[in-house]
Amino acid sequence: MARWQDKVKELTPAQAIVSYYFIAIAISVILLNLPGTHQKGVEVPFIDSVFTAVSAVSVTGLTVVNISETYSVFGIVMLMLVLQLGGIGVMSLGTFVWLLVGKKIGMRERQLIQMDHNQHSLAGLVNLIIEIIRILLLIEFIGAMILTFYFLKYYDSFSEALLNGVFATISATTNGGFDITGESLVPYFNDYFVQIIVMVLIILGAIGFPVLIEVKAFLSNKHPNFRFSLFAKITTVTFGILLVVGSVAIYLLESFHSFKGMKWHEAIFASIFHSVSSRSGGLTTFDITQFSEGTNVFVSAMMFIGASPSSVGGGIRTTTFAIAILFLINFARGKDNIQVFNREIHLIDVFRSYAVIILAIFMVLISTILLTISDPTIPIGSLVFEITSAFGTCGMSLGVTPNLSPFGKVLIMLLMFIGRVGLISFIFTIGGRAEKTKYHFPKERVIIG
Amino acid sequence: MARWQDKVKELTPAQAIVSYYFIAIAISVILLNLPGTHQKGVEVPFIDSVFTAVSAVSVTGLTVVNISETYSVFGIVMLMLVLQLGGIGVMSLGTFVWLLVGKKIGMRERQLIQMDHNQHSLAGLVNLIIEIIRILLLIEFIGAMILTFYFLKYYDSFSEALLNGVFATISATTNGGFDITGESLVPYFNDYFVQIIVMVLIILGAIGFPVLIEVKAFLSNKHPNFRFSLFAKITTVTFGILLVVGSVAIYLLESFHSFKGMKWHEAIFASIFHSVSSRSGGLTTFDITQFSEGTNVFVSAMMFIGASPSSVGGGIRTTTFAIAILFLINFARGKDNIQVFNREIHLIDVFRSYAVIILAIFMVLISTILLTISDPTIPIGSLVFEITSAFGTCGMSLGVTPNLSPFGKVLIMLLMFIGRVGLISFIFTIGGRAEKTKYHFPKERVIIG
Ligand SMILES: [K+]
Ligand SMILES: [K+]
């Protein structure tokens, strides 16, 4: 036992994260292939089985099989378990790495979750995971209660309402994006209550765990002189701006296209829901293959940006995007530093955002070229959509993923894995050293990627 | 006269450049519409006339009309004049701004072209333009001589060979990319001599004027202790690497596609030629609509990168790309500075490359979305190709530009203009101030964008 712990301690954070995901995927493949998980007579090829496991562990939601037609109730329960495993793992690892690497900046959060700076890191990780599970289960318990009772309106039996309510809650909160309706949330296109609950759950999952514990600390009133961290402010404001810009853009792009003939409130809800979902949720209330090419490009870009760091979402992350924009504005104005919320962004974070963006663009570009070779019959717009959806661990799909070649499926799996692990940004998080610079405001660190 | 000069002196460099291009476009529209410039019975709509002028002044080469079917010999001579005007203007302004803004780094070049640092800037500009015209005309004179005599093999009369030889030379050297054959250089698909001459001319135009004068100084042996500047080294090495990578990639992507059935040397030359041409030349020896979607994406990316600064090419420029890559490699290795050729890249140049890349990506993305709305029938891959071709002032085309809606044509014109002016990067060049940082190697400035 001691030797095993020593081995774990010897791993670099990057190695630990990659190892965690490999083990999690292996366990998920087993869980999803236990006797009785499949419906009678349904055979799932091994590659599709692995695909579902990778998609579930990375809480992406892209699928090559129809869940409701493939898995039994037992199988669906296993899938929920894997989503929980994925969601908790993602939040824990993301936050833990941040605390570990970000040294000084993590102080506040470390205090908020009673994690001693000098304490053994494995013990700290355990504390962190317990806190995350507590918060996640609390959110999910409330969500599942509401949806289950509300779903009695749709389903004849309580057990059916329960299954659908709990699954929708877990799928939304972990941003898993899977569905057991066979058509995502399209059956609830006119049910704004369901949509609002689901959107709240998606946002709570995607806003980032550090934000959740800060809000909890703020509400609890137990910490005198509490103030929100720069990270919490930037990621929340960026998240909000992306939601608004996304909703308006989708509305404008589609109002004379697929939204034509819809009632005004239907069009508005469809815009808002898919804007929320494009951050990382991946659920849809509408057949998004009806979207115009312009909307596809726009949503692809939104999925590429992704959700907050230390959340269940992927992509380059909101803070990376925010710093790029802040940098651009400040640079154009001739300023040699970025000031926001009375703080100055650290130079190393500008560097990180640059590195993450460049590498992410390369990845999308090379993936696109490879997929045009392996899957030449699929339109390029759809390929880019699925690629950014995988990298952003969003899971929205133009429906072409099930038709991908084996090579294409493996590539999408790899992108979900990379989008999840944030390997790239992580490498830079480890690799980068702070540069000494003079500063005017006190500096404060922000997570990139 | 004095008052006019005062007015000019009051312009910021950005205003001066934009003004120059507006005036140049207006003059070009007039030149291309002089009586007798069109073939009998041919009517060119005003928007197409402006399009041709913008394309020629920006030496891009995208066309909405077939030059050989539209213009008379007199019109073609006018077009050559406009291309020269464009090419000289582009080189002069780019280099001049660099000398003006880059203060210390321009010293060497300023000495090489006998431009005094304290001398009046208009006088310096005149010296610079004279030097550029001398070098450009020398290159073109040699090129035209070779091609004209060689073309006697193809054309019956000397005057025909002369017209085609001179036009091809000017189109290649200024990287104008226009043709009077009606099908670019496709007639010379099997003539490697013509292709080699044209490639050399394209490269001489696209490698950047500062490189040309340094090479001239080096060869003249007149300057003791001469060494090539960091800028010349970076831009030339990057240019070379892009040529090699481009050739190999095009060969691999097309060898089982459009190159199938070609002789090995045909495939190799087609790969090399279009790799060279994608930097900024825009001429083709092959019907590139036959390229696979993967190649289209790859070539789009190459055109987006573009040519050297202070050359006749556009795009984000080779140095911007080089610094992004060098930054990425150094950052991943945990280094907080970029060392190359025993010099350290200045922080401000890293910032500039970041700003240029982010803004360029935004521009391409927004342009793509707008074109999918204005021209919904054109495949998105083709739209992105024409957009990057315009921004890179490359001029390669999948043939959809003539079919664009008026809005689409205006947008492409705007992109050619922006790609040419480098307005964005220029704004940052003016806007950005150097940050004070410690350095280990002596620092030296490099042009971004
Ligand atoms: K998802
Ligand atoms: K060109």
TrEMBL record, chains A, B:
<dbReference type="GO" id="GO:0005886">
    <property type="term" value="C:plasma membrane"/>
</dbReference>
<feature type="transmembrane region" description="Helical">
    <location>
        <begin position="122"/>
        <end position="152"/>
    </location>
</feature>
<feature type="transmembrane region" description="Helical">
    <location>
        <begin position="410"/>
        <end position="430"/>
    </location>
</feature>
<feature type="transmembrane region" description="Helical">
    <location>
        <begin position="73"/>
        <end position="101"/>
    </location>
</feature>
<keyword id="KW-0812">Transmembrane</keyword>
<feature type="transmembrane region" description="Helical">
    <location>
        <begin position="234"/>
        <end position="253"/>
    </location>
</feature>
<keyword id="KW-0406">Ion transport</keyword>
<feature type="transmembrane region" description="Helical">
    <location>
        <begin position="46"/>
        <end position="67"/>
    </location>
</feature>
<dbReference type="GO" id="GO:0008324">
    <property type="term" value="F:monoatomic cation transmembrane transporter activity"/>
</dbReference>
<feature type="transmembrane region" description="Helical">
    <location>
        <begin position="12"/>
        <end position="34"/>
    </location>
</feature>
<feature type="transmembrane region" description="Helical">
    <location>
        <begin position="192"/>
        <end position="213"/>
    </location>
</feature>
<keyword id="KW-0472">Membrane</keyword>
<protein>
    <submittedName>
        <fullName>TrkH family potassium uptake protein</fullName>
    </submittedName>
</protein>
<keyword id="KW-0813">Transport</keyword>
<keyword id="KW-1133">Transmembrane helix</keyword>
<dbReference type="GO" id="GO:0030001">
    <property type="term" value="P:metal ion transport"/>
</dbReference>
<keyword id="KW-1003">Cell membrane</keyword>
<dbReference type="Pfam" id="PF02386">
    <property type="entry name" value="TrkH"/>
</dbReference>
<dbReference type="InterPro" id="IPR003445">
    <property type="entry name" value="Cat_transpt"/>
</dbReference>
<feature type="transmembrane region" description="Helical">
    <location>
        <begin position="312"/>
        <end position="332"/>
    </location>
</feature>
<feature type="transmembrane region" description="Helical">
    <location>
        <begin position="353"/>
        <end position="373"/>
    </location>
</feature>
